[in-house]
Amino acid sequence: MTSFIGKRALASGISLVGLVILVFFLSRLTGDPTNLYLPLDASIEAREQFRELHGFNDPLAVQFGRYVLDLAQGDFGESLQQARPAMEVVLQAFGWTLRLAVITMTCVTVAAIVIGSLAAFRVGGVFDRIATFFSLIGASAPDFWLAIVAIVIFAVNLHWLPTSGTGTPWHWVLPVAVLFVRPFGLILQVVRGAMITVLSSAYVKTARAKGVRSRPIIFVHGLRNAMLPVITVIGDQAAAILNGAVVIETIFGFPGIGKLMIDSILLRDFSVVLASIMVSAVAIFIMNLLIDIAYAMLDPRIRY
């Protein structure tokens, strides 16, 4: 297992280095941030002083070398917009996104596995048709449309929930509910399909013939063998939220890393952009590593 994890970690580390190099040079293509942070009537001397202070006068190769040296010392630079360490800004925003992702994916995973498994137990039944109908609608519904409709109905018309912010638990209801819909629909379909295949296998039929109750057949004998494709989809959906649910965070004014990343790109706050990409990439790599470990635990053949 140690060798297995080491190989995955090494591959992720190489990808991370390549990503940092790519993002550094691509971010510089957006232009000089001087005009965004100084008044329009700022003198030429003031502009040159700003560029000199932040190292924008140096060639790109020199800027990159300096960034790599700082990065090796754990220094991710300073935010131009907030005048404080970029990593501090990013971790604060990532904390909000992480909480949003954990709450959403916990609800999604439990609901999709339970409902999808029960739907697969009696294929074609009333419960199966209802679950399939709503999961297909959820999987195909655009996030931005759901968010706007939810705000209009529950915040504007009914006045049940706030439109944006994070001040109280009620502020979390709409973002979590909107983010819940699409992953729930996708994961439920995968659970249902995998469980249909497993429940039609010979060993399940034998268990039924021996009089084993339905609950152990579904959640003990069947679910373990159906989890490999389900884990893949759960990991993909969790990584998408961890990478920043940009649309949802923007619509609901949620101070997560997705919104921070977009704002930083528009403001050419290079240090925050790079720190955001770094944190998001590490989170995704850790998520993929956990998926690989889960695969190996469920199917030991994958380790070798």
Write structural notes for this entry.
The protein is mainly alpha-helical. The protein is built from 13 helices and no strands. The N and C termini lie close together (9 Å). The model has no long low-confidence stretch (mean pLDDT 83).
Helix share, percent:
over 70%
Counted beta strands: 0
Order of helices and strands: HHHHHHHHHHHHH
Whole-angstrom Rg: 24 Å
Strand content: under 5%
User: Roughly what is the average pLDDT, rounded to an integer?
Assistant: 83
Shape annotation: flat
Outline the low-pLDDT stretches. Answer: none
Supply the number of helical segments. Answer: 13
Termini gap: 9 Å
Write the layout of secondary structure elements.
Blueprint: H1 2-28, H2 34-37, H3 44-54, H4 60-72, H5 86-121, H6 126-140, H7 143-157, H8 170-199, H9 202-209, H10 214-242, H11 246-251, H12 257-266, H13 270-298
Helix pairs in contact: 1-13, 5-6, 5-8, 5-10, 5-13, 6-8, 7-8, 8-10, 10-13, 12-13
